[in-house]
Write a structure and sequence with these properties.
Layout lengths: L3 E13 L5 E9 L2 E7 L1 H4 L3 E8 L7 H7 L24 E8 L9 E2 L9 E7 L5 E2 L1 H5 L37 E2 L4 E13 L4 E5 L9 E6 L4
């Protein structure tokens, strides 16, 4: 399976390569991640490993979140006949949980660190972009806007016509208009992995990563080399 890990975006800086070239990098605090579940083809219908990142205080976690990582003793629990007992990780509830598809040799309860990405040349980073609220077409789609001349009155930043007439008498789906800008999942593909700091659990990735500083990110070994 592609190697991957979960983490948080720390911020951006620049580092120097061996030849003296300065490159901009995004610093990501990655792991250690707890292996919460291992999906199998026989039991779940697909192969995957479920990782969790960053402990969540128990007072903030729901009962289902606590029961997902550790066994809860309760009189309400009823064992179903023939049901296989799922192994628990025995850790604290996790703030950020994601699955990585594919067969794996990891076991529940172990940890995944940045050392697992040793030897990886490039990665794909997935995160949620910054939400910018309701935006017009000039900010959202980089429209030019209308002319500041005769006949244009107080509509300089409007979208203008949408290209419809008696036929087809409707607006086509996907027409670029004003609306929600940002707050969507974005994947940056094939980013060079410049450096791995195993002591501090840091990854230095060349280029920018969507989302605010402190936002959760998913890092996978790329398949675009």
């Amino acid at each position: 399976m592609p190697r991957g890990i979960l983490g948080r975006k720390v911020g951006m800086t620049q580092v120097y390569l061996e030849d003296g070239t300065a490159v901009p990098v995004t610093v990501i605090q990655a792991g250690p991640c707890n292996v919460l579940q291992v999906r199998t083809q026989e039991r779940d219908g697909y192969d995957a490993v479920q990782l969790g990142f960053e402990d969540k205080p128990r007072r903030l976690a729901s009962r289902s979140e606590r029961g997902h990582v550790a066994k809860l003793d309760s009189k309400r629990q009823k064992a179903r006949a023939g049901a296989e007992t799922v192994e628990k990780a025995g850790c604290e509830p996790q703030r950020f949980v994601r699955e990585f598809r594919g067969e794996t040799d990891l076991t529940v309860g172990t940890q995944v660190t940045v050392a697992g990405l040793d030897g990886v040349a490039a990665v794909d980073v997935t995160s949620i972009s910054k939400g910018r609220g309701f935006a017009g077409v000039m900010k959202r789609h980089n429209f030019q806007g209308q002319r500041a001349s005769h006949g244009v009155k107080k509509v300089h930043r409007h979208a203008g016509g949408t290209g419809c007439s008696a036929s087809p008498s409707r607006v086509f789906k996907g027409t670029r208009m004003a609306g929600q800008f940002g707050n969507t999942q974005i994947t940056m593909r094939n980013l060079q992995l410049v450096r791995i700091d195993e002591e501090n659990n840091l990854l230095l990735v060349r280029g920018s990563v969507p989302g605010p500083c402190g936002g959760f990110v998913t890092i996978r070994e790329t398949n675009r080399l």
